[in-house]
Design a protein that fits this description.
It contains 26 helices and 25 strands. By secondary structure, it is of the alpha/beta class. The longest helix has 31 residues, at 350-380.
């Protein structure tokens, strides 16, 4: 361990991170005992000069990671009574219909997440008095959905509160308030001299609040949102500008170095002190400190910085910014020698030299994207194929906005002329992003399994490590050989083996609404309803289609939906479909032909016409045949009913899915009148699973219906509501009838399968 003084840090960071990761599966006491037992043995072997000491040291690093993570264990006081607390604001982010504020509470020695109204203006360092009930953060209810609990855990927050009383206490002078006022002044300068300052503020400060959701979606679609996070590019440009400004200042080189590092530290704090910014600043400090001296290898600097950050805050490991930043930087450092060898194959004349530089820039961008593939699939469920090209095209424009925005934000009116120039650059960047986004070169894919991700990183790191060896000579025959083997490997991976696949039915938890995805063995996708929100929540920006349905479809790797079925046009079934129609290609839409006067229904028809989606209105007796013997039979309505308690509900499409002798009955929101009409006309047969009509309403309880269909399982799609759904009588009847009832408000998303004539439920939602 200690014999190699020039490369001591490489294994420390990965092993420490592994220990922090394993801490969620093992108690800290085990790590403490392991450390107590192994430390004397390691010291003895190290004293004897045995090579095996390094392996014990690695085990000690893993144990140290477990103990580090244990120091940040969550704390949630158990109290049924409301608590009155005082806290200091650490972070404040506006959401669609409220704002999330993270505060530190000295009384609890813990962080809390508060959900407060948007009209309460807060800055970092503010003190709040609030009163309410502490709750645990909500867990993920659907696969692919944003994991709010994990996100808060990465911030050191283990409890949330929606206060019913809150008061902003008088502000006191502090460093945090001074920093917040500087941020506000910086943004005010941008807003004063620019018509569209959002992009400049995002690139300089990492503040995306002024960017529209459409802009953020385009940047995410292109895979270039990393440019909006303050990272090495920002720190490098800012450092270069500072060195140019200090070039003619009569100070010593060491004094200039200290000044640049200090200003860069201030910039990191000003931009929000994100993990990627800390990593870049530490790299700059190490590079400045080692100037003119023998420096550590890039990989060991990378490991040293990661170690320092995890020791300072083990929770960094769970933050997506930390993971993406270190994965990309590590991949680039590991592959850089190989890229240089390949670039040297170009002729070293003027044209060849420039071609080599262009190749290096493209290769670095591709390597960065390849190093992020498992993480991107895990968090975003799609790969942006245009990301390397978009990055290369956007970097010059982003650099101009960064440098110009820094000068404009600092000097204000003295650099006012820059405002119009930056508006032109921002407009050009926005136009270029929208143009590239039209290509729609995203590949939707489910998250990579853990073993595949491990194999990916081992292969990726292995090739990069081999390329670093000095004895490896890169020539044309070697390149051709690698290309040939690479093509063979890609062909083997890309050709899917058509094994038998099950038919899957997933009932998503969309709150008080319905959304069902049917996935056939031949990868056809049928979406029945899309969930929705009440008009109250729609006006406040909540959209279950964007927060739940679209992420789930991307999580499953869906790019095209073969059939969309709208059971009826109520908001809780239709509104979520709007986001689906906007973000996915759709082969056909069917419904019962019911109309509605709501804005949601009008938008629904507009999207059908705008995207030229084939549209059919079906009735009882109609049938949709899919590949592999999958059939959808329409059982209701025979004709639209009128004069019932709710015509929209009672005219819901009732659909029987049949495959391999098994069947599922989907009932929409049909009520008593509709069920009685369905029973009178016949056509019902026993099924394996029924979706309980109308979220378990008492008005939809018809015992004769269940006696005919005889289901083994029943799913109640329901959320928090004021209607009393599901009614106790319905739950009691299902229990007495021996029907296994599953509620989405309790279970989250639930999935079933039909495979080789067997019907069953997945242990976890698919």
């Amino acid at each position: 361990m200690f014999q190699n003084r020039t490369r001591p840090f490489l294994p420390v960071f990965p092993l420490l991170a592994l220990g922090i990761y394993l801490s969620q599966f093992a108690a800290a006491a085990y790590a403490a005992w392991a450390g107590a037992v192994l430390t004397p043995l390691w010291l003895w072997l190290e004293f004897k000069g045995r090579g095996s000491a390094r392996y014990l040291f690695w085990l000690l690093l893993i144990a140290a990671g477990c103990l580090l993570a244990a120091t940040d264990a969550g704390y949630l006081p158990e109290c049924d009574q409301p608590l009155a607390l005082t806290g200091r604001v650490l972070d404040c982010r506006p959401l669609s219909y409220n704002q999330r504020v993270i505060v530190f509470v000295p009384e609890l020695k813990a962080r809390l997440a508060l959900h407060l109204p948007l009209d309460l203006e807060l800055i970092l360092g503010d003190r709040l008095w609030f009163r309410g009930h502490l709750e645990k953060p909500s867990r993920t209810r659907n696969p692919g959905e944003f994991d709010y609990q994990a996100y808060l855990r990465s911030q050191g927050v283990y409890a949330v509160m929606e206060p019913f009383a809150c008061e902003l206490l008088p502000r006191k002078a502090s460093a945090a308030l001074a920093l917040a006022s500087l941020q506000a002044r910086f943004k005010a300068n941008l807003e004063r001299h620019m018509q569209n300052p959002g992009l400049a503020a995002a690139l300089v400060l990492g503040d995306r609040s002024a960017l529209s959701p459409e802009q953020l979606e385009v940047w995410e679609q292109l895979g270039i949102t990393h440019l909006l996070a303050v990272s090495g590019t920002h720190i490098g440009l800012f450092a270069a500008a500072l060195w140019l400004a200090l070039r003619w200042v009569p100070f010593s080189k060491n004094s200039k170095t200290v000044a640049v590092c200090a200003v860069l530290l201030f910039y990191v704090l000003l931009s929000g002190a994100k993990p990627s910014a800390w990593r870049a600043w530490l790299a700059a400090v190490i590079a400045a400190g080692g100037a003119g001296r023998r420096q550590l290898d890039g990989l060991h600097v990378w490991s040293l910085i990661g170690t320092a950050m995890l020791v300072a805050n083990p929770l960094y490991l769970w933050q997506i910014g930390f993971q993406l930043s270190f994965a990309a930087s590590g991949g680039i450092i590991l592959w850089r020698p190989l890229i240089k060898k390949l670039a040297a194959l170009f002729p070293q004349r003027t044209v060849g030299r420039w071609l080599g530089r262009i190749f290096s820039a493209i290769a670095v961008s591709i390597v960065a994207q390849l190093s992020l593939v498992p993480l991107i699939l895990h968090y975003f469920s799609h790969i942006a194929l245009l990301a390397p090209a978009a990055t290369l095209l956007m970097v010059p424009l982003a650099a101009a906005l960064m440098v110009g925005g820094m000068f404009l934000g600092v000097f204000g009116s003295l650099a006012a002329y820059l405002g119009s120039v930056l508006d032109v650059v921002a407009g050009l960047a926005d136009w270029l992003c929208r143009l590239l986004a039209r290509a729609d070169c995203n590949v939707a894919a489910p998250p990579m399994p853990a073993n595949w991700a491990l194999a990916w990183y081992l292969a990726f790191a292995g090739i990069g490590w081999i390329g670093r060896r000095q004895y490896i000579r890169i020539g044309a025959p070697t390149v051709r050989r690698w290309v040939n083997w690479g093509l063979v490997a890609m062909l083997a991976v890309s050709v899917p083996h058509q094994f038998a696949r099950p038919l899957e039915i997933t009932f998503l938890d969309v709150g008080q609404g319905d959304c069902i995805l049917i996935r056939t063995p031949f990868r056809q996708h049928i979406l029945v309803d899309g969930g929705g929100d009440s008009v109250y929540w729609q006006e406040r920006g909540r959209n279950v289609g964007m927060t739940t349905v679209v992420p789930y479809l991307r999580h499953r790797g869906v790019r095209h939906i073969d059939l969309v079925i709208s059971s009826h046009p109520h908001e809780d079934h239709l509104h979520g479909l709007l986001a689906v129609l906007e973000h996915f290609s759709v082969g056909m839409i069917i419904d019962s032909g019911q109309t509605h006067t709501s804005p949601t229904y009008r938008k629904y028809l507009e999207l059908i016409m705008e995207k030229r989606i084939p549209y059919q209105r079906l009735r009882a007796g109609d049938q949709v045949l899919l590949r592999g013997g999958v059939s959808l039979s329409i059982l209701h309505p025979h004709q639209l009913l009128s004069g019932t308690g709710s015509d929209l509900n009672n005219n819901s499409l009732v659909i029987r899915l049949a495959y391999q002798g098994r069947s599922v009955l989907l009932t929409g929101d049909i009520d008593r009148e509709g069920l009685e009409d369905l029973l009178k006309r016949g056509g019902l047969t026993p099924v394996d699973l029924v979706k309980v009509p109308h979220h378990g309403s008492r008005a939809a309880l018809v015992p004769e219906f269940y006696q005919v269909v005889q289901p083994r399982h029943a799913v109640i799609s329901v959320g928090r509501n004021s209607f009393g759904h599901p009614h106790p009588d319905v739950l009691g009847f299902l229990e007495l009838s021996g029907i296994t009832a599953l509620r989405t408000d309790q279970e989250g998303a639930v999935s079933f399968y039909i495979w080789n004539g067997l019907f069953g439920r997945y242990s976890q939602a698919r």
